[in-house]
Amino acid sequence: MAVSYTEARSIITSIGHHKAQEFAQDEESLSLEQAVGRVCKYALRSPIATPTFDTASMDGYAVISHQTNHATPTNPLQLRVMGLMNAGDAPMEVDDRIFSDLVPCVEVRVGAPFPTARSTKLRFDACIPLQHTQILREGGEGKIVQVSNQPLTSWHKRIAGSDFRENGLILERGNIVAPKHVMALASVGVREVAVMRNVRVGVVSIGSELTSSLLPPSQQPPPPHKIPDANGLYLAAAVREMGLDGNYLGAVPSDSHTLTNFLRQHITKDNFDIIIATEGVMSGR
């Protein structure tokens, strides 16, 4: 018994709602690089604060800022270099006492942590860039540099937790994973992401004017004037551009019996979540 257009829409809507609820329960775990373009299943938050410690954002000399607050162009201050720290090095513990008017400092490279003061166990809190200093002496008695300006504690320093705080939101649930999210998640140690199962979409074109590549010769529409299908391939490509799994199923003639059998086969196999049928030229009423 035939159903009306309104009844057909109601049936499709009901089934679609039920299928959507089932689909929402599915998920799969993918590595970060494989998750790009997929919809994240849950909100993604940082498990840690990052950076986990203050680091130098420029090559320079780490100092305790209050020990250099008297430096001026007319009254420059001399610093004694106590060592060198590179990115990845463990923090040095440095004697932070001032001897012979020489303020202790440590040469640091970009990304290096700040050294620790031996007397207080606190980290040095400022970085003086190399270009703001002048080397006075190098050799057996150590390296001595001169500075003419007081550094500020927040200058040239990448502050702990300035990228992400612990439990800080990186990507909301239901959003698409992009390369920028991969970088952010990798920086906090996340290596896998739970994503929604990808929607499988099949596209079939309908039209007796189209060359059908899926039907045997005995079922091919008679010539002479047939054209290759462009719409179906275009729609399958557009679906893939949206991030879904689009597949072109070919073209079938404008015959209800042939089309019904074709669709029934694919629905029975359950290879697709959605099948899009498109017709360019109406061949009948």
Overall description:
By secondary structure, the chain is α/β, with parallel strands linked by helices. Among the domains are: 55-158, Molybdopterin biosynthesis moea protein, domain 3 (Molybdopterin biosynthesis moeA protein, domain 3, Beta Complex); 198-279, Molybdenum Cofactor Biosythetic Enzyme, Chain A. Helix content is 21%, strand content 27%. The protein is built from 5 helices and 17 strands. The chain has helices at 5-25, 32-35, 179-187, 231-241, 256-269, and strands spanning 28-31, 44-45, 55-56, 60-63, 77-85, 93-94, 102-108, 116-117, 126-129, 133-137, 143-147, 157-158, 169-171, 192-195, 200-206, 245-252, 274-279. The strands form 6 sheets. A 6-stranded mixed sheet has the order 9-4-7-5-11-10, with no helix packed on it. A 3-stranded parallel sheet has the order 16-15-17, sandwiched between helices. Strand 15 (200-206), helix 4 and strand 16 form a beta-alpha-beta unit. The longest helix has 21 residues, at 5-25. The protein is rod-shaped, with a radius of gyration of 34 Å. 22% of the residues are buried. The mean pLDDT is 88.
